[in-house]
């Protein structure tokens, strides 16, 4: 879903440095090392989703990032499904799938979106989604719950079920649709937990905490 490249920044960063204290500040006039689509938000009433294009120059300490939404070039593979309404704005048309592409200084990042009737475009997580189930009575790192059942109760992924592994990690294989849903975690000997969840490509992994009964 994301395509990035590393190129030529070392030459710009090493010219004025010394062997003991090199200058590794990236030259932000060069192509970035990564171009990310982040901060997705969905407005079902208007049928429009918004996102930001962030360019990262990752050789700096700390890395340098900049919002390039208004500078990037935006395109849709099928404007009858998902139309570019402005920089970082994608509006729904007919139901279906389309690829949103954003380009900045020769770097391109893409995101597959899916349109359902009456909803704004939703990103599709081709790599799937993961999270953790934790034991609320134990301190980390020994608080991971093995063999817990995680169910998606509502949303476009409703009906999917996963079991946590030895590290307390649950995995839903892709494709996985971003958007609002409700999830439930349960295991014999624990009280179950049901929470709303907004899944998205750049959202943090959910941590579901179970309390022993």
Stated plainly, the CATH topology of the largest domain is called Immunoglobulin-like
Sheet having the most strands: 5 strands, antiparallel
Question: Strand tally, please?
Answer: 18
Mean pLDDT, rounded to whole units?
A: 88
The SS-based structural class is mainly beta
Write down the Rg. Answer: 21 Å
N- to C-terminal separation? 42 Å
Low-confidence stretches: 1-23
Query: What is the overall silhouette?
Result: flat
The DSSP helix count reads 1
Which CATH architecture of the largest domain is right?
Answer: Sandwich
| Total domain modules | 2
Q: Using the coordinates above, name the CATH class of the largest domain.
A: Mainly Beta
What is the N-to-C order of secondary-structure elements (H for helix, E for strand)? HEEEEEEEEEEEEEEEEEE
Strand residue percentage = over 45%
> What is the helix fraction of residues, given as a range?
under 10%
Structural description of this entry:
- The chain has 213 residues and is mainly beta.
- It folds into two domains: 9-124, Immunoglobulin-like (Sandwich), CATH 2.60.40; 126-212, Sandwich (Immunoglobulin-like), CATH 2.60.40.1120.
- Helices cover 3% and strands 49% of the residues.
- It is built from one helix and 18 strands.
- It has one helix at 9-14; strands at 34-43, 48-57, 64-67, 73-76, 82-86, 89-92, 96-104, 107-115, 122-125, 129-135, 149-154, 161-163, 169-172, 176-177, 179-186, 190-191, 193-199, 207-212.
- The strands form four sheets. Strands 1, 2, 3, 5 and 6 form a five-stranded antiparallel sheet that branches. It has a five-stranded antiparallel sheet with strand order 4-7-8-9-14, with no helix packed on it. The chain has a four-stranded mixed sheet with strand order 13-10-18-16, with no helix packed on it.
- The longest helix has 6 residues, at 9-14.
- Residues 1-23 have low confidence and may be disordered.
